[in-house]
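ok trying again, last paste got cut off:
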Amino acid sequence: MLERRENLKRQKKLLFIPLLFMLLLSIIPSIIYANNDEIVYVVPIKNTVEKGLSEFIDRAITEAEENRASAIIFDMNTPGGDVSAAIEIGKRISETDIKTVTYINQDAISAGSYIALNTDEIYMVEGGRIGSSGVIDQQGNAADEKAQSYWLSAMKGAAEKTGRDPIYAMAMADKSIAIPGIKKSGTFLTLTSSEAQEIEYSNGTVKSLDDVLNQLDLQDAKLERLDESFAEKIARFVTNPIIVPILLSIGSLGLIIELYSPGFGLPGIAGISALLLFFYGHLVAGLAGYESLILFVIGILLIILEFFVVGGIAGAIGIVSVIASMFLASGDIAVIGISLVIAIGVSIIASILLVKVFGRKMKFFRKIILTDSTSTENGYVSNQNREDLIGKTGIALTALRPAGVVLVNEERVDVVSEGSFIDKEKNVKVVKVEGSRIVVREILTKDILKEDE
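nice, full thing came through this time. structure:
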């Protein structure tokens, strides 16, 4: 009996050992994970740089700061874009205490190169490129001297802040700078991955993001890949300098066509939708506040009020309010100025075509302008036609100077003399009727004698 009990004890001990082992296995990963608190945020910078991207980058860096990330890696492939947006992004990157790294996964051109230069380290894939950072205007021409000078100093400052030789950054933005053996005068500097590494603009040439993590000794860190929300994607699309004039043109064109069309249909819906999309995108991008949208609505209401109130003041204030709201929402005077000029031009051309080619009339004015006419063709007469009096004679009841009253067939008639003064109680004859104007002439004695003969 005692032996049986001993055997049961041994069996329980043997069962306890694997259970304890399994428990340790479940605890060890938790302990390892608790000790490994390194987090790396991977933030994409793709396609064109615009105002909407600036808001996304700010959100990503803020989230990384709140979670005490070890590093932020910007996965970049961009042809460039808006200079002011790049300046904002570069400033936000410079402000953070987190280690920032750019992984150039093909191209960092123009505004992209400036953003990359603001990060602590740069890694490039084989065949990657960085540079060609000349600033151009909306028409694709070189910007004015003031804008070029500002951008050149910004490129130089970005390189100096991160310990890179500024001459190469300046050569990326200024054609006139020549660097022996690397760049001739007359072109913007563009570096390949090997050239960038040689002049220490790149910290290394890599094949993938994993290689970047290995270079940073963060291969075991937890990766947090951020992507733009749907609203941020819309904001990036809407704030693109190419899309803004298209949206405003669609908005103005849709409303113009609607004014010349019966009822309310697709043109009006498209126009209003385009304008609302413009404001929505700029609100999400953080460029506009609700005050710009409120100002726009007030402007539209004042323009509508102008149709019912004379004076022109309400309409003028309304137009100024609408234009001001768009400038306030955009934040970029040059872009919104050019966009409004294009939209107004499209509206004028559309109005001319609708009136001259298609013979349309603005339906809105039909409701507030009297279009009925009291024409003779419609059976209307302005006064009674007294042509029956022509040739009739009468007596002047008053002196005609030249207007007065005569008695014709026992009827008092308002008349005017043919030009001369006619005394009271003189005989007169109706010689002409012009509407309500009845003209008489004095009958002289010789005229009476002629009639008697």
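cool. Residues 27-35 have pLDDT under 50 and may be disordered. Residues 285 and 418 are 81 Å apart (CA to CA).
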